[in-house]
Design brief:
six-stranded mixed sheet, binds thiamin phosphate, Phosphoribosyl-aminoimidazole Synthetase, Chain A, domain 2, alpha+beta, about 30% helix, globular, binds magnesium ion, single chain, 60s Ribosomal Protein L30, Chain: A, binds adenosine-5'-triphosphate, 2 domains
């Protein structure tokens, strides 16, 4: 299939030929003054400030080509970057996409990747305004995202104060369940979770909504609830004390429990330590009505003897806290 003329490999095309297959899939709206095709893009920045963030996906580290299509990887790469913009309380506006592909990759895979970006960005009015293309030994997708604070102050990781309510929007543990099902060679155990692993959805509108409601700190949960809550706690110099997960995260636990039972895994470890769901974790002053779909998952406490970080019901968590590329 891969060597038929109808399905060319990347190596059968020129750079310009590959770009010609990518460009038609990229969303383009009125914010973009100069889009793909020139030396750089030009976009509007009405606020006078620009939110900018970058995240990379590496083949066999973040995705496997026998587990995910090009469309899936494009979608995931877009969402994980859009979630970082939303986590600042901003509205995502545009992306640039740097792509490394091996010559033996089917060109259709690259076109699917562009389509995945379009599918994830288009509905949010986010434009893909440019990028870069290189050959290399494995697929690498590096995305830079921009966002608009619409006149509001950014919501940092460092603003949580003792007494604040800790709240989460989105799901916890579903992506980990999907990953585990794929890793066990049993994707049929939970096709929905496998779908969420391949194409996570982030509650992007909840970021600006949290900012408007007065969120004191926020981040997206990319590496696991415990690890990211700990980051927020340390950045703020406080303790994020999560409520009993069996109560606060009952819906997430119920969602993955049958899959965990089928695979002999611990659902609490997935919900507290699984990453790549890209929900938003935020803190709010205690008198604030939580904007939908945020739900309370804990409370902020002053640091005690153990310093800042994360606890579960006042105790040091016992499950693996989440993903770290270099530590266990
Ligand atoms: N190579 C780097 N050079 C400069 N700053 C970096 C580099 N890598 C990460 N950072 C910065 O460190 C901070 C933490 O980065 P990190 O990637 O952990 O956050 P994230 O993108 O929200 O999470 P994740 O990548 O796990 O989804 C960010 O402010 C990021 O810009
Ligand atoms: C093939 C394969 N193996 C393992 C995983 C799990 N995984 C990889 S990176 C990461 C955290 C977020 O990364 P980052 O911090 O870089 O955004 C997680 C949970 C996967 N997705 N695919
Ligand atoms: Mg990052
Ligand atoms: Mg983040
Ligand atoms: Mg990370």
């Amino acid at each position: 299939m891969t060597d038929s003329p109808a399905a060319p490999l990347v190596a059968d095309l020129s750079e310009d030929g590959l770009l010609a297959r990518i460009f038609p899939h990229l969303p383009r709206g009125p914010r973009t003054l100069v889009g793909p095709g020139d030396d750089a893009a030009v976009v509007t920045a009405p606020d006078g400030r620009v939110v900018v963030t970058t995240d990379v996906l590496v083949e066999d580290r973040h995705f496997r080509r026998d587990w995910s299509t090009g469309d899936d990887v494009g979608h995931r790469a877009a969402v994980q970057n859009l979630a970082d913009v939303a986590a600042m309380g901003a509205v995502p506006t545009s992306l640039v996409v740097a792509l490394v592909v091996p010559g033996d990759l089917p060109a259709d895979w690259v076109e699917g990747l562009a389509r995945g970006f379009g599918a994830a960005c288009g509905p949010h009015g986010v434009d893909v305004v440019g990028g870069d293309l290189s050959g290399g030994p494995v697929v690498v997708v590096a995305v830079t995202a921009h966002g608009d604070l619409e006149g509001r102050p950014p919501v940092l990781r460092s603003g949580a104060r003792p007494g604040d309510v800790v709240a989460h929007a989105g799901v916890c543990g579903t992506s980990a369940a999907g990953y585990a099902a794929l890793a066990a060679g049993r994707p049929e155990v939970d096709p929905g979770a496998v779908g969420d692993f391949r194409r996570p959805t982030s509650p992007l509108a909840a970021g600006p909504d949290a900012a408007v409601a007065g969120a004191t700190a926020m981040l997206d949960v990319s590496d696991g609830l415990l690890r990211d809550a700990e980051r927020l706690g340390r950045a703020s110099g406080v303790v994020v004390d999560l409520d009993d997960p069996e109560v606060a995260l009952a819906a997430d636990l119920d969602r993955v429990r049958p899959t965990a039972a089928a695979l002999g895994a611990d659902p609490v470890a997935w919900v507290l330590g699984g990453g790549e769901d890209h929900g938003l974790l935020a803190t709010f002053p205690p008198d604030v009505a939580l904007p939908a779909p945020f739900r309370r998952v804990g409370v902020v406490r002053a640091p005690e003897a153990q310093g800042s970080g994360v606890l579960v019901q006042g105790s040091v968590p016992t499950v693996r806290p989440g993903w770290d590329h270099f530590a266990g």
